[in-house]
Amino acid sequence: MNSRKNAIEQTIKYALLALCVFVLYILQGTPGFLQIAGVRPVLIIPFCINLAMLEDDGYSLIIYVIAGLLMELSAGRIVGMYTIPLIIACVICTILVKFVFQANYRNTVALSFACTFAILMLDFFFSYILPGHKRVFAVFIKTVFLSSCYSVVFSILYYKIISAIQNRFKKFDAR
Length: 175
Hints:
Blueprint: H1 2-29, H2 44-54, H3 60-75, H4 83-99, H5 105-129, H6 136-152, H7 155-168
């Protein structure tokens, strides 16, 4: 009976986390929402990085795939353009937090910025540099650097939300 209750609580926890990703997808896709001087934040990547830092279950991978597919849907990219780098970044963050770093606010901001910057840089490379666009430096500053900086602002909020969800649905260890 107790294992059934734990399974139900874990299902509810991951359903709440998936709901958070859907809400962030809707907010991120809303035209003009949180836009400052033409710079828009990417809300989903820092959320997934925070989830990777705080949650080490394999079930989180499902949320990363959902998040990546939703980002591709909103950006009009081919399947895998955001999903694969997001999964790789989340797995690397999970390993780093498990063996090198602690999951705290400072590391959350640093890893969120690094991963967001890397994923946006990869998208910028394939969208602007390879097709041969001219004067890409201004576009780089706006779409990659400033967007990464603006996106990281929400990392501490995500850290608190994910921590609150985890605290509510703690696993019961009956050893």
